[in-house]
Amino acid sequence: MSLLEIKNLTVAFDTSAGLFKAVDGIDISVERREVLAIVGESGSGKSVAMLACMGLLPKTATVTADVMRFDGRDLLTMSDAERRKIIGKDIAMIFQEPIASLNPCFTVGFQIAEVLEKHLGLSGRAAHARSVELLNQVGIRDAEDKLKAFPHQMSGGQCQRVMIAMAIACNPTLLIADEPTTALDVTIQKQILDLLVTLQEKTGMGLIMITHDMGVVAETADRVVVQYKGHKMEEADVLSLFENPQSNYTRALLSALPENAVGDRLPTVSDMLFEAAPGVR
């Protein structure tokens, strides 16, 4: 049994222009001890699919699926109260833009302790000790002092590590990392990716990496799902995807990598899809 199994997921939003399908009939699964990359351009429905799984979309969204199951539990029939018990504990997510995701009005220590109290019932000294342990685990120096800091007093890389600490606080069985290296410099990107993979290998959790960066895919993933405009274009193990992509869209993504630049011009995904017309697939 897969840790997470989703079949025929559709997410639609009611807009002034009519019903817009952000995700249209995709299947996704991830196993324990596996790193699954979901890759595609911005707007391809990667984040929306995972937010739908976690029940974090606004009420204006219509979510349907044939199957949406986590660790044997049916997410479709689960009540909001039951879902809240597992979100943040058994399934955790690292959101985009860590500085924007952390509350600027509260210290880092308060925000980590809130997670520990909500899901594990820890408070006082126990919560403080676990918070220090978590910051040390994600490589933040002077953990005691950093617990007293507000997000704006920390760098982007440190805030991302705090987000990871909050996500792993309850030892989740599934961690979803949504563009975890966006807006970080190359050195910090490498450190964050290494940290996530190390944590995944150490704990045996399933890891879903949402990204548009094929370099991140090559470096971290076991298996890859390629999305385009809400549709799943291709699914393969990472070696097969890079060596023998099956869809025109995947070939376009790979052809747009910086190393494929001709002179001072880099091929774009749109260029490659135009050449592959009439069908995107």
Name its key features.
alpha/beta, 11 strands, five-stranded antiparallel beta sheet, 281 residues
What's a quick, concise take on this entry?
This protein has 281 residues and is an alpha/beta fold. It has 12 helices and 11 strands.
How does this structure look, described?
The protein is α/β, with parallel strands linked by helices and 281 residues long. It has a domain at 247-281. 39% of the residues lie in helices and 24% in strands. Strands 7-8-9-3-10-11 form a 6-stranded mixed sheet, with helices on both faces. Strand 5 (67-70) and strand 6 form a beta hairpin. The longest helix has 18 residues, at 186-203.
Number of strands: 11
Strand composition percent: 15-25%
Tell me the helix content: 25-40%
Widest β-sheet, arrangement of strands: 7-8-9-3-10-11
Q: Which residues form runs of ≥5 with pLDDT under 50? A: 274-279
How would you summarize the topology of this molecule?
Elements: E1 4-15, E2 18-30, E3 35-39, H1 46-54, E4 61-64, E5 67-70, E6 73-74, H2 80-86, E7 91-94, H3 98-101, H4 108-120, H5 124-137, H6 143-146, H7 156-168, E8 174-178, H8 186-203, E9 206-211, H9 214-220, E10 223-228, E11 231-237, H10 238-243, H11 248-255, H12 269-275
Parallel strand pairs: 3-9, 3-10, 7-8, 8-9
Antiparallel strand pairs: 1-2, 1-4, 1-5, 5-6, 10-11
Helix pairs in contact: 4-5, 5-7, 7-8, 11-12
